[in-house]
Amino acid sequence: MELKDLTVVITTFKSDVKVLSCINSLPREIKILIIENSNNQKFKEEIEKNYSQVECILTGENKGYSVANNIGLQKTKTKYALLLNPDTIVTKDAIKNFFIAAESKPDFWLLGPENKDNFDTSENNIVEVENLKGFALFFNLKKFDNTFFDENYFLYFEEIDLCKKVTNNNGKIYSDSNIIINHEGAGSVKTTLSEELENNRNWHWMWSTFYFHKKYKGFLLATIIIFPKLISSFIKTIFYQIIFNKEKRNIYYHRLSGLINSILGKRSWYRPTID
Length: 275
Description:
The protein contains eight helices and ten strands. Helix 6 packs parallel to helix 8. The strands form two sheets. The protein has an eight-stranded mixed sheet. The radius of gyration is 20 Å and the shape is globular. By secondary structure, it is an alpha/beta fold. The chain has two domains: 3-183, Spore Coat Polysaccharide Biosynthesis Protein SpsA, Chain A (Alpha-Beta Complex); 191-263. It starts with 5 loop residues before the first strand and ends in a 12-residue tail after the last helix.
């Protein structure tokens, strides 16, 4: 195991506290690239002052998960890259087990930690899968020709699309039950911003859902698939407006807006209003 062969890439946005726990769970010998989706110079200075192994790159604005991940992966010069969410904790033997899995499956494109949905009663700890969870992705960089995520996605479906790209190119994806990384989930950003981010999540979940289906199944079939969600979002927006439930009205309004914009072929333009 050569730690010099690995770079960890972490995309952050208002994740000042969460990312520290993630960094501290990693061996200090590993190079870390943080891609901060803002122009927060203070964050960059404090991170680089306290962690000599970390380089923080500021995007200047919130460019989204796909663009920021691509920036980090394209700047990586090592053999492998481990893409982590900032709200993850890497357990003691996880890095070692990533390398063991990489050596046992040299044809791999992507490796991921244990995902219970991928495992049966087999005694094999490494299984070939079609999808991985996006919170921890281990890349065999030579397989990708420096092209990774579809930058049309701002949030959601990026890793599903990436895995689809790999399998469409006959690439191998593996999940290893010996690799354990703890993931808080939807916990990367300060909780004080929860209402605005809930609206953001709902907008982008719907936009990305239609875009993904259209990309792989065509416009007509994608429209048929999402039509029930479109009707449901419309009815619930009206209903919660009538009963003066502003919070739920906003959720379904943003779902409806995300879907309509995606159907109309508009880019994923919605951004949370956060100071």
